[in-house]
Amino acid sequence: MSEFKCKQCGNCCLHLAVCETGKANEEDISRWESEGRYDILRWVSIFDYGKEGRAGDFLWINPKTGEDANRCPFLRKVRNQNKYKCLIQDTKPEFCRQYPEDQEFALKTGCKGFDQK
Ligand code: SF4
Ligand code: SF4
Question: For residue range 101-112, what is the model confidence (pLDDT) as tens digits?
């Protein structure tokens, strides 16, 4: 299997729909609460499943419209480069940390991280 190396192309964050069911989990939500990251939490619709914990609906939800955001609000283009960076790298959701999971999902969703070029 090829080694994965993120190319910082931004594809996954610019086209969130390709990643399908990205959600915030209980740990993400609790961490953001303890960090006081309400700038992040305002982009998450939280559902409480009682004993099963909480989960955020699809990432991300535009707080002004209540609609799915087409692209991540925490993505920024690197100046003078054809690269992107995550503004919340240190506390980004588990879903983002795990993406693309495997080569098959990378291929399916247009991630070039497994390409050797
Ligand atoms: S699509 Fe793949 S290579 Fe591009 S930024 Fe996302 S994880 Fe990195
Ligand atoms: S939080 Fe970071 S890694 Fe996740 S979609 Fe946004 S920019 Fe991409």
Answer: 899 999 999 999
